[in-house]
Amino acid sequence: MRSLFVFLFGLHLCRPFSLSRSRQTRTLLFSSPRKTSADFYDADTLAGILDLHSSLNLGEVVAEEVQQDGLFEIVEKMSQNTNSRVRAIACDVDGTLIPRGSRVADSKSLKVVRRAIKSKRLTFFLATGKTRKGAIDSLVRSGEITEEELLGCPGVYLQGLVVVNSSGEVIYERRLNLASVAAAVEKTRTDGSGLAVVGYDGETILCDEMDLDHPGVTQLNEKYGEPRVMCCEGGLSNYASSFHKLLVIAPEDEAGIAAVDALRPKLEKLGLGAGKFEITQALENMIEVMPKLTGKGEGVKVLLRHLSLRGNECLAVGDAENDEEMLEFCSPSCTLADSSAGAKAKATYVMEESSGEGGAGRAMEVHALGFKSIKFVTGNRNKVEEVKALMADVEGVEFDNVALDLPELQGSDAVEIAREKCMLAAKEIGGPVITEDTSLCFNALNSLPGPYIKWFLEKCGHEGLNKMLDGFDDRGAYAQTIVAYCGGEGEEVEVFEGRTEGVIVAARGSTDFGWDAIFECGEGEGEGKTYGEMDKAEKNLVSHRGKAFAKFKEYLNEELD
């Protein structure tokens, strides 16, 4: 038994370098959310596996007894907690961030990319077959992310043949030799009916004059956002320099795809011999010719070494054949519901969402960045909408309300009451929760009504609250909100206070939201207006609730990072 534990522990530590057979065993025991086979363990062995998972913080395993002589079967693999060890994200573009068949990137995923770029803990980079300019331009046109944000990231481009650091400096590149270019172009011309060839020299894309108007060539710019293809004087085979890669392109129709399928084995055979190149494919109508022993996976390895990171510290997200090496090397790795069968076989996880449903962003949230669903304890939908507006720019968090029948706690310390209330709510919900306690305090009445304003308002109304201050010179008041947050049962409660000074006046403006109409703000741009006379955006800038949630927002951003 001891030797089994040593073996399992060693297998975990060595997994980035394990052979494919070991990797399959590791996937079965440690990573896969999908059931891959029926493996049975006796009680002692199962106990050892469970203890090992617990000690390594790898998540939970669910096992049940089967009718096979007291053996147990692991029926649900753990949802591995990889967030804590992931330090980088490598993400493909076409078919991953940009849905298949679309020109525009998925907005949900790009919002998560922006969050990843801002993270102090993570390094985000694109790993794509596109040029750097083409990849960035194709993402920027969605309007969800800026060129400046993406230019500040390192990257793996042209299927790993060009790797740049965060300053945009090339730290690694590989090129085809001239003989390989000539051999691949000649084979395509003789055996590839209706196919065009383009050559990539960094950000420059060239083709023979005869291919300039080919529909596959024009779509590189129009559909995929690559730099416009230019004519290569003298022809690709006689180009003075050399190319990083060649792209063989067909029209996007049945005949074009059939021509690509027919040419590929011929190019592969040539590459194994005199051609000295290899082939990969991301799209049905395109074949990529690259130098030997290169690929996107190799480019990712180069960049991770530059960042002093290992494969098991990088989340990879991809969708196609050209991503397979990257998906196999990195751990964790994710592919999407609409990805290729080969990519799904290599990835650690297959997301339920497709590329057009935010699948790439969801993968980054779950396996690198973290994602929170926080319940707001209230039955008041107006409050929920106001909180969502206040927290709209906090990425990686969603808010929903839940109505709980919590005991009405009494006491003079509003902060302690808020803490206790939040603890009770977290215990009942069993997850992250926020509570809110609001007070309206009259200076002349020694802070009454305070936290009991709800009952005073119900009994007295706006006019009655005003009459409470008749006979006093001081009609000053302050509004206070205490937001309490608890991550779950047994966790510490964090408290965030907001306070706004003002005066009590006869009702003005909307009377739909509590006592807003009688509280005239005495601060900032809202001075002289009641809350009831302000729109939501204006009120959020000066209100006690806005101030409290601003502090909570700052806390959440630091926690998620």
UniProtKB/TrEMBL annotation:
Molecular function via GO: dITP diphosphatase activity; ITP diphosphatase activity; metal ion binding; nucleotide binding; XTP diphosphatase activity
Signal peptide: 1-16
Catalytic activity, reaction form: dITP + H2O = dIMP + diphosphate + H(+); N(6)-hydroxy-dATP + H2O = N(6)-hydroxy-dAMP + diphosphate + H(+); ITP + H2O = IMP + diphosphate + H(+); XTP + H2O = XMP + diphosphate + H(+)
Cofactor names: Mg(2+); Mn(2+)
Cofactor notes: Binds 1 divalent metal cation per subunit; can use either Mg(2+) or Mn(2+).
Keywords: Cytoplasm, Hydrolase, Magnesium, Manganese, Metal-binding, Nucleotide metabolism, Nucleotide-binding, Signal
Location relative to the cell: Cytoplasm
Annotated positions binding Mg(2+): E408, D437
Binding positions (ITP): 378-383, 421, 437-438, 513-516, 539, 544-545
Pfam families reported in the protein's UniProt record: Ham1p_like, Hydrolase_3
First-listed, main subcellular location of the protein, grouped into a coarse class: cytoplasm
Cellular component GO terms, alphabetical: cytoplasm
EC number: 3.6.1.66
Keyword Cytoplasm: yes
InterPro entries: HAD-like_sf (IPR036412), HAD_sf (IPR023214), ITPase (IPR027502), ITPase-like_fam (IPR029001), RdgB/HAM1 (IPR002637)
Chain's role: Pyrophosphatase that hydrolyzes the non-canonical purine nucleotides inosine triphosphate (ITP), deoxyinosine triphosphate (dITP) as well as 2'-deoxy-N-6-hydroxylaminopurine triphosphate (dHAPTP) and xanthosine 5'-triphosphate (XTP) to their respective monophosphate derivatives. The enzyme does not distinguish between the deoxy- and ribose forms. Probably excludes non-canonical purines from RNA and DNA precursor pools, thus preventing their incorporation into RNA and DNA and avoiding chromosomal lesions. Pyrophosphatase that hydrolyzes non-canonical purine nucleotides such as inosine triphosphate (ITP), deoxyinosine triphosphate (dITP) or xanthosine 5'-triphosphate (XTP) to their respective monophosphate derivatives. The enzyme does not distinguish between the deoxy- and ribose forms. Probably excludes non-canonical purines from RNA and DNA precursor pools, thus preventing their incorporation into RNA and DNA and avoiding chromosomal lesions.
Subunit-level organization: Homodimer.
Protein name: Inosine triphosphate pyrophosphatase
